[in-house]
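User: Show me a protein chain along with its predicted structure.
Assistant: Here is one chain, sequence first, then structure tokens.
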Amino acid sequence: MTANRAAQAEQYWTKLQQNVYPGRGIVIGLTEDGQQLVQVYWIMGRSENSRNRVFIAEDNGFLRTEAKDPAKLTDPSLIIYYPVRHIKGAHIVTNGDQTDTIFEELQKHGGTFESALAKRTYEPDAPNFTPRISGLVDLSNKQFAYKLSILKSAGNTEDQTLRHTFTYEKALPGYGHVIHTYEGDGNPLPSFDGEPKLVPLKGDAKQIADTYWGMLNEENKISLLVKTIRLDDGASELLVINKE
């Protein structure tokens, strides 16, 4: 079983390396030592507006995107947002302003990851209709280790939103699951298809960051973060890489 798992993870890792444009991506999993949950998030871009971004970590542990050159910013609506926020033991990571929707929903009595995302849909960027991808680690909820979600259009149309949430009851040391916005490059861009895929998480936060940053297409990658969350005391740390 372990050998099959490793082979499966390496197989998709190789596919990611060969994918020039998986778009924005989220990985959630567990470090090899089983001590820390990990959230990885990266952004990519093809246009000048999309590439004009950096990750900025705040003192409160939140992280926002910001224009690298404000003078070149033409449309901030889908590129300036908080990818990472947390409330108590719940750590949110997404590819858009649905981060705020989830954050606000979790503040309410009875509010959940799913009820928050029921209020949102895919991004209004026809003809791509880019999926909204989201992830959650909630140390206060022992029923699951982490969740991943994708909201996407049905067949690149506005007919309906396909809403898929994947719940992982147990995290596997040295592995995570990845979900990303696109299957690859194209016009329109083809949305991610199927379930999140198993991928390796080897080494500490810096090794994970360097490995995933090195995997992404050099021309299209913009920024990447790795967030670690200790299982014993909930302490978290952020590591950020921005393209020079």
